Amino acid sequence: MNERVMQFRLGMFVIVAGLVLTMLVVWFGESPQLLRDRGFVKVHFAEAPDVFTGVSVRKSGIHVGEVVAVDFDDRPGQPDGVLITLAIEGRYKIREGSIPRLNRSIIGDVSIDLLPGDGEGPLPTGPTPADAPVIEGQTAVDPSKTLATATEVLENAGDILKTIQDAASGLARISKLAGRLEGFLATWEQTGKDISNVSVQAGAFIDDNQATVKSVIAEIEVAVKQLNATLDPDTRDSLKTAIAKLATTAGRVESAVADASPLLKDLGGAVGRQPTTDVGQAARRLNRVVSDLELLTNTLRDERGGLNSSGTIQRLLTQTELYDNANAASVSANQALAQLRGALNAFRDFAEKVARDPGLISRGALGR
Length: 368
Fold this sequence. Notes:
Elements: H1 3-28, E1 38-45, E2 56-59, E3 62-72, E4 82-89, E5 99-104, E6 110-115, E7 134-136, E8 138-139, H2 143-208, H3 210-230, H4 233-259, H5 261-268, H6 278-300, H7 312-318, H8 320-356, H9 359-367
Parallel strand pairs: 1-7, 2-6, 5-8
Antiparallel strand pairs: 1-4, 2-3, 3-4, 5-6
């Protein structure tokens, strides 16, 4: 088999495969976009939230097209907004005057519905998106905003009902108070009668004992005069001076108490509180010393309160062997220090000789 036969068979295979693929696309799928008969129209919306390419275009609930482009409306002399290009299937006859309306569901799905038109002819369209005419669209009310408004209205209605309930409760309390008010007025009337009777009785008592009351008042006047005579100018001055000194002393005592307030706070404060005065810090150190002494005495005592003979400190105090061992260690340390001192003296002499004559080192080495 030569090369030309192989090329011919390969070309035939490619042609047959392409025809089969085309037939499968036509039978089992939609025809390519370029082969479909569609008309294009642009719709102006003030805003188009969540609109993107591929959004369905419907008329009376039937899919008649889709969104093929979303752009800002930058036409000169036109209001700002969005231009959405719609591709309408040619097999559907859309009547002139149909208005595209942008709808949103509660869950956020977006679609464009063509409202029925009242024109006689078909809706004007263009063969390409660039030639598409521009028409005005409408935006339906957002269900989420409507739901939010309804929720707010229900909340306001709940507040109104609560206010009405509070008003009814207030009226009920006022009704109860009205009953109590009647009893209060009756009690007040009786109290007025009692006060009137007491006044009458007091007047009768004063009339009956008028001479006695006058004598008592006269005696009070005599006692006041005697008190004024007793308090001569010198006595009054002395009394004023004593009162002034007492006030000064009280002020000093108050100042002293104010100055001692930080100390009292330190002395009466919690254990973990940092003192701010010298006395407070001294008291805190004394508390620490007492605490350390208590820990030491607890360590030295046994369960019966006596000296613990098995402890390290107690054995140091009671056993002489520990002292003997400590003395022997001290003697050995003194001997070692004495030997070390001799070695240090010899090294110091050697260092001084070398410092005076460094040549001694080389001469000593050559002499060996």
